[in-house]
Amino acid sequence: MRVLTPPSKQIDFASNDYLGAARCPALFQAILEEIESLRMLGSTGSRLLTGNHPYAEELEGAIAGFHRAESGLLFSSGYTANLGLTRALIQEGTTAIFDSELHASTREGLSLAKGRSLPFFHNDLDHLEKRLKRRSGSFVFVESLYSTSGDFAPLREVVELSKRYGARLIVDEAHTTGLFGAKGRGVVSALNLEEEVYARVHTFGKALGVQGAIVIGGDPLKQLLVNGATSFIYTTAPSFLTLAAIKVAYK
Q1: Within a 10 A sphere around the Cβ of 176, how many other Cβ atoms?
Q2: 8 A C-beta contact, residue 248 and residue 34
Q3: Is 168 helix (H, G, I), strand (E, B) or coil?
Q4: Is 201 helix (H, G, I), strand (E, B) or coil?
């Protein structure tokens, strides 16, 4: 049985605070100053009702631009981002082909989606190709860096196979955001594959030391998520406290 325990005061080899940003005094002070300038706290509702604000939209545009994408949509966490993305994309007649070590959030989203989902052996390109041969026009889901095993996806090869069989690629960059690529843009950017990837998920609760996530891609993807991602539609939008922290962390 799982139990909740307070964190110990020992040296941290377990958390996702890879750069120590969550305890950074300079980041803390900068966030306080940003919040002070806003003079706002809660978002008041879903972004489709009263919870949208130019501050959130400007932040989405800035982060998408930083990662060299056309558009982005903020979520309250990486879990809700993956949940919403998978359920919005994988509709009836659509197939998701996913790495067997994919995060639980994406796997749960796929289990709730209306379309079909098929795993392939972890980082096994031959097995991936066998799946793609039988299901052309699918969506392929991988992580750029897998937290369970600590290894990277062979992204160049996955991109090549996806293109060959007309599949669209989704890459979860939760464990590479802030760590890899120029200024922490991620592995997709480091390999100059931005134009080859349909969607990327970047999270802020690890190397950036704050909270939340964003799905980035083209404008049509954003519109699809706004209208089809239930974890975005039916939840209160991130507070201004969260948005301010994200904005400062990206500085």
Answers
A1: 26
A2: yes
A3: strand
A4: strand
pLDDT in single tens digits along all 251 residues of the chain = 888 888 777 788 788 999 999 999 999 999 999 999 998 999 999 999 999 999 999 999 999 999 999 999 999 999 999 999 999 999 999 999 999 999 999 999 999 999 999 999 999 999 999 999 988 779 999 999 998 889 999 999 999 999 999 999 999 999 999 999 999 999 999 999 999 999 999 999 999 999 999 999 999 999 999 999 999 999 999 999 999 999 999 98
Let me know: does 216 contact 85? Beta carbons within 8 Å: no
- Domains of the chain by start residue, with CATH: 45-237 (3.40.640.10)
Q: Calculate the CA dihedral of residues 9, 10, 12, 13 and round it to 10 degrees.
A: -150
Rg (CA), the chain: 18
pTM score, whole prediction: 0.95
135-166: burial string, b at 16+ Cβ within 10 Å, e else: beebbbbbbbbbeeeeebbebeebbebbeebe
Category of 56 on φ-ψ map: left (φ > 0), alpha (ψ -120 to 50) or beta: alpha
Kind plus residue range of the DSSP H or E element containing 118: strand 116-120
